[in-house]
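Appendix B, record 7
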Amino acid sequence: MDDHRSNCRCRKPPCPNLKVAPMSEPAPIVLVVDDEIQIRRFLRTGFELNGFVVHEAGTGAEAIRTATLRPIDLVIVDLGLPDMDGAEVVERIRSWSSVPIIVLSVRSTEAQKVHLLELGADDYVVKPFGMAELLARVRVALRRQMRAVSGEPTVKAGPLTIDLAARAVLLNDKRLTLTPKEYRLLQVLAQHAGNVVTHQHLLKEVWGSIHVHDTHYLRIFVRKLRQKIEPHPDTPKILVTELGVGYRLVQSGAEGDAGAWSDTNAPAKSET
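Structure tokens (predicted):
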């Protein structure tokens, strides 16, 4: 299996303003998996205009074969494939590769999202969607992968800075005092910054496997953590709720969250 892993690379993502990557930097390679040729053409055009190299697959089998034989930096996969469910594609690629995977689907139930994230998908985009939203999510996934590979120790979320190497958390450059559980919770979220982390994953990582259904623990500690890291805890912009799924640490510089730090935006109501 390990011989396949070398085919999946993670290189520097395109610059935030959607310009084509400099010639000195290799373009990120995206595998687009969808049985509808019109959608594949739409995605190919959008990605190529923004400096990506695109490979296409119309079936699950073709996607797995391409991901095995070609260097791929990120996979975009639709759930409704003719030969197998896209969830199987996610599971099979994840069994030997850490390449970021983003799922596209008209299915939008909370249970479906949780299932796919637990299988190993990095993000989930509901159809119909805009190319700008998808590009922003792609950049977040690539940055996260790049940080994991490079071991980058610092994560920024608006006015919040998390130095994972020093185990230090600063809000507006002032060091915060967190309990061990609060820090561990924030640490797990920071390690997945920009992506949704499910309730079950957080509970397992912070409290252990026997507590994966004790969501009341999580609600209590999220509320406590917000009181310390959010300038306005009742309208959180740093640690946000993904209803029925989990929580997400909003990373600075993600275009999909470009307005998150502006006071002129109408904040989402806190749901713990």
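Remarks on this record: The chain has nine helices and twelve strands. The longest helix spans residues 131-150.
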